[in-house]
Write a structure and sequence with these properties.
13 helices, alpha/beta, about 35% helix, single chain, globular
């Protein structure tokens, strides 16, 4: 793990500001999370905004419901680290400002947003999740996967390979949050030894280090492995050794994707990290390998698309965190109570019908993650703004609300 990046995310998945962290990740997860949260708090202070929620995407499996890290293969942390609880405590120490100038407080380990008391502070909605899961969620809502019903996402970061499945708008995470760890599918029986104990897994055969090694390049310390692999693929693809390495990884990636297609039958596949660059380098080759090894061949072909969001994991973490806070404000309190507690409900009265104090507007929804879809927040057709623009009341709402996300 080469470091971290903190991002301030506004409504509709809009990146307001980012702050790269420049540190080698130590074996103490509390020190890492303190640095991440402090970077996010600094972004908030510089922007003058309040924090509606906080999310943390991490490159490891996060078990639910406790938010613990299992087998952190690419991070020098011990198994069983309570990542979510440490994230909450870091927020408490940083004093991150929330709506109405409330500050973050610590929730007990294992508690959830829906169990929070009325007026629950931001700390109780701090969410953690696997980075590829959250990237898939962001792409589904704001990027290349909009409109998909059965979405498969496969991506590589600086090390390893991850996967995610979004079914009808909901992340499929299995019984304990560990589903779709596709990095441990075998694609080369005689391949490299994997951290999991097997050999030839996607995790070690189709990641940036595998590409650099196959191309005969020695990784350097100057930039991340992912950036080195991307630069090599972009700048030296005409080199026979680089092209051969790219074809090797494309073939192995295609075998893994074909197996997933046979099992899951998705209607769209999106690729992130180095896999996006491999798709761009030779899209026909990758599609041909998947079609050849699929049970249904080309007739059952699935669209293969690159991820389109530059910071999809932080955006997905913001969606998760804000959705969690939405659940908190839906726990029985009226709209004025939610507003006093720092809730973010955005709604418009039905035309011709006065609102009564404390009444909920029919057809309204909780506004942060669905605000761009005006039809879903009770806006009559004749009052909708032109395409791509928010009406004045929504623009005012958007101008004062944001979320801090750390990755």
């Amino acid at each position: 793990m080469d470091g971290f990046r903190a991002a301030l995310v506004g409504l509709g998945g809009r990146i307001v500001a980012t702050a790269p962290g420049c540190m080698t990740v130590p074996a103490d997860p509390a020190a890492v999370l303190d640095a991440i949260v402090e970077a996010g708090a600094e972004l908030l202070r510089a922007s003058g905004r309040h924090c509606l929620g906080a999310g943390l995407p991490v490159p490891l499996a996060v078990a639910e419901p406790d938010g613990t890290a299992l087998n952190p293969l690419h991070v020098a942390w011990q198994a069983g680290v309570p990542v979510r609880e440490l994230f909450w405590r870091s927020h408490a120490r940083a004093g991150v400002p929330g709506p109405g100038d409330a500050t973050v407080a610590v929730a007990p380990a294992g508690s959830s947003a829906t169990d929070s008391a009325p007026g629950a502070p931001i700390g109780q909605t701090g969410q953690t999740g696997n980075d590829v899961n959250l990237a898939a969620l962001a792409e589904y809502r704001h990027g290349a996967a909009r409109g998909a019903r059965q979405l498969l996402c496969v991506a590589t970061g600086h090390r390893g390979v991850g996967g995610a499945l979004v079914l009808d708008g909901r992340l499929h995470t299995g019984s304990s949050g560990l589903a779709l760890d596709v990095g441990h599918l075998t694609v080369h029986e005689e391949g490299r030894a994997c951290h999991c104990g097997s050999r030839g897994c996607l995790d070690v055969e189709v990641d940036p280090l595998a590409f650099l090694t196959a191309a005969g390049r020695e990784p350097g310390p100057e930039v991340s492995l992912l950036q080195q692999a991307r630069d090599l693929l972009r700048d030296e693809y005409a080199d026979p050794s680089v092209r051969a390495a790219a074809h090797l990884l494309i073939d192995r990636l295609g075998r893994g994707l074909a197996g997933l297609v046979n099992i899951l039958n998705p209607d769209r596949i999106i690729l992130g990290g180095l896999h996006r660059d491999l798709l761009d380098a030779d899209p026909e080759r990758l599609r041909a390998v998947v079609a050849e090894r699929s049970l249904w061949g080309s007739s059952g072909g699935v669209p293969l698309l690159p991820c389109t969001l530059d910071y999809n994991s932080p955006v997905g973490a913001a969606e998760l965190a804000l959705g969690s806070r939405s659940s908190t404000t839906r726990s029985g309190r009226s709209a004025p109570e939610a507003t006093r507690a720092g809730g973010y409900r955005c709604s418009v009265p039905r035309a011709g019908r006065p609102r009564t104090p404390g009444a909920r507007t029919r057809g309204a929804a909780w506004g942060v993650r669905r605000l761009p879809r005006l039809a879903r927040i009770g806006v009559p057709a004749r009052r909708r703004a032109p395409e791509g623009r928010l009406p004045p009341w929504a623009a005012r709402c958007a101008a004062t609300r944001s979320a801090t996300v750390c990755s």
